[in-house]
Amino acid sequence: MLELAVKGNKWYWGWMVVLLGVIGAGFGLYLMQLKFGLGITGMSRDVSWGFYIANFTYLVGVAAGGVMVVLPYYLHDYKAYGKITILGEFLAIASIVMCLLFILVDLGQPMRALNVLLYPTTNSVLFYDAVVLNGYLFLNLVIGWNVLEAERNGVHYQSWLKPLIYISIPWAVSIHTVTAYLYCGLPGRHFWLTAILAPRFLASAFAAGPALLILLCLFIRRFTNFDPGKAQIQALAKTVAYAISINVFFLLCEVFVGFYSNIPGHMDHLKYLFVGLHGHGALVPWMWASMIFMATGIVLTVTPATRKNETSLMIACIVIVLGTWIDKGLGMISGGFVPNPMHQVNEYAPTMPEIGITLGVYAIGALVLTVLYKMAVGVKEEIHD
Amino acid sequence: MKNSRRRFLQIAGVSALGLGAKPVLNAFALGGGKGYHVASGEDALTAEQWAMVIDTRKLQTAEAVEPIIEACNKIHNIPTAIDNKNHEVKWIWEDHYHHVFPDKTNKFLDEAVEHKPFLLLCNHCENPPCCRVCPTKATFKRESDGIVLMDFHRCIGCRFCMAACPFGARSFNFRDPRPFIEANNKEFPTRMKGVVEKCNFCAERLAIGKMPACVEASNGAIAFGDLYDEHSVVRELLKENYTIRRKQTLGTEPSVYYIV
Ligand code: SF4
Ligand code: SF4
Fold it and tell me: Quick check: is A193 in a domain?
């Protein structure tokens, strides 16, 4: 099927060249980071995880979000999704590739990354995270590739795939649960120390993943001869509507517990994020933007008229992707480190090289996604000819 | 005699745990930093769980704590010349009461307490969350005496332990620390960029029968001994004085006690 990815018009190749350029620049910056150390980032003794881990966390969500098309199709026999499960699976592959790269660029000694497997440490959540992420990547590669190939040959996919497909559904939930457990089991990090963190991560994932998928479907319909389908997009939109509402509900639960109990440890991080603490408030405008984005997303996806109109749906999906990215990416990770364990405020902001490396990783993800989608769409076009 | 034993301590790249798989690891170990051998000579000091009692009544001013911090910095090759606050490496340092004990701060506090310096260092917790989260066992609690140690050759620099430590006791080498070491001690390994480090309760000194450097430099203000030996100096002090610990409600069981 790879041959489908090497046939393309000038837009396709132009896009690839742009991506390769960004990847090249990001790689150059990464070499700089390797030479100097993580000191070229904005991270510090107090905020010891930053942009890389934030984007990692967000993309685990996008990867898990792919299950929102797989599950209805295979478990509820919702036939319409048969057309687009492959898009969900391929989106998951590209996201996991980015996740693994973000972990790698975040390591102080990346050449030793394999130590995680050489000294398997079963009390470390990071060990399980490595296992579930790689497992999910593997599952989606095997399933996606074989199902697509079978579709191309006009046959039913191999029966041994069926158990793998069923396993992949809870597995998707597991990747984001384990990722939340990285944070929510740490004593003394009150912002994360909440049982609702994993559910909240999942809610935001099931909003962001399908929202991104809708945008990709709209793009594919506009620029290729394959139409993912109106009914499919509408069904996805309903998933987004529920998930984004639940996500905001969970956030409000956190706010209630923090402020009604009036326990400083629980309030301080939220205060830092939304109103600033001890005169520091770099994230305040971002967090409010995120709230406005997510609220707009809720209004547009819950209201039937704006959900059915694909232009307003597109706007809704864009603001939901942005809103959840700020919420989970920017706020969740660095917000958890401020104030520090000594209740001092030491803020974090990513540096230019850090952003450059991040863009490089995103470009690799986009490249993987482009190639995979090119093949998927190519097969779909062949069949419908 | 002492000297040769000390040199023996410098043997590279071997630490107490995971000796079996070490050859595989060495293939991945980069940089020139040396691990330290934690085997002990015949006059090594031993304990079930080392603990420390800091008598802050005897440490009223910045001048009183300075030589203590300096003693540690010097013998452990701490890169004290790093001027970027974000990249600071600290094993033992000082701060105000309300930062050290944020959960025990009254609005109106004894003025002397409010203004005197408090020493901070790794608590060598009995239930250390840093060790619980480490994906490589690069940081581990030594069974024999409860010291929480680091294997600088195994650490992948994921900084999970920094997120897990509720006391801010850990530092990451955001850059090569070697150009920033002011007093180079040839008998203790320097670290490389990309690994985490922290106070080791002077495991290398205990192994040759010496008390930790900070204890030695404290003029009797810091006591060190076995928490589970009821005749040890720390137990005597705990018996006779009211002591507090940092954030003990989190259940990590810090082994550093403060007399206020
Ligand atoms: S003080 Fe922090 S670094 Fe030291 S043992 Fe306790 S949790 Fe670990
Ligand atoms: S930074 Fe090193 S010591 Fe800390 S958790 Fe990661 S591997 Fe373990």
Answer: yes
Please state the rounded mean pLDDT for residues A78-100.
95
Q: Rounded distance, CA B228 to CA B144, Å?
A: 13
Q: Is the ipTM of this complex over 0.90?
A: yes
A87 burial level (CB within 10 Å; 0-12, 13-18, 19+)? buried
- The ligand with the least distance to the CA atom of B170 is 1
How do residues B209-245 score in pLDDT, each as one tens digit?
999 999 999 999 999 999 999 999 999 999 999 999 9
Number of other CB atoms surrounding residue B1 within 10 Å = 8
Task: Tell me how far apart the alpha carbons of residues A328 and A306 are, in angstroms, rounded to a whole number.
Answer: 26
- Atom nearest to B148 CA in ligand 1: 5
Number of separate domains in chain B: 1
Q: Is A262 exposed, middle or buried (0-12, 13-18, 19+ CB in 10 A)?
A: exposed
- Residue A115 within any structural domain of the chain: no
- Interval B8-62: pLDDT, tens: 343 333 333 333 333 333 333 333 333 444 556 778 999 999 999 999 999 999 9
Which residues have a Cβ under 8 Å from the Cβ of A54 and sit 6 or more positions away?
A: A328, A329, A330, A332, A333, A334
Asked whether B155 lines ligand 2 (CB < 6 A), one says yes
Residue B191 CB–ligand 1 contact under 6 Å: no
Domain residues for the domain of A327 are: 189-209+233-348
Q: Supply B90's token pair.
A: 């600290």
Residue of B nearest to A130 (CA): B135
